[in-house]
Amino acid sequence: MRWLAFAIINSILGCTTPSEHFDTVAFNLGIHSQLVDAEKFKHSIYVDESNLSGELLHVYLDGDGTPWQNNRWVSYDPTARNPLILRLMVQDSTPSILLGRPCYYGLSQSLNCDKKYWTSHRYSKQIVSSMSHVLRQWLQQHNFKQVVLIGYSGGGSLAMLIASNIQQVTKVVTVAANLNIDSWSTFHGYPKLESSLNPADESKLQAKIKQFHFAGAEDKIVPAAIIKQFSENQTNARYFEFLGVDHACCWEQKWSNVLRIIRE
Question: What is the b/e burial string over 156-186, where b = at least 16 CB atoms within 10 angstroms of the residue's CB?
Answer without folding.
Answer: bbbbbbbbbebebbebbbbbbbbbbbebbbe
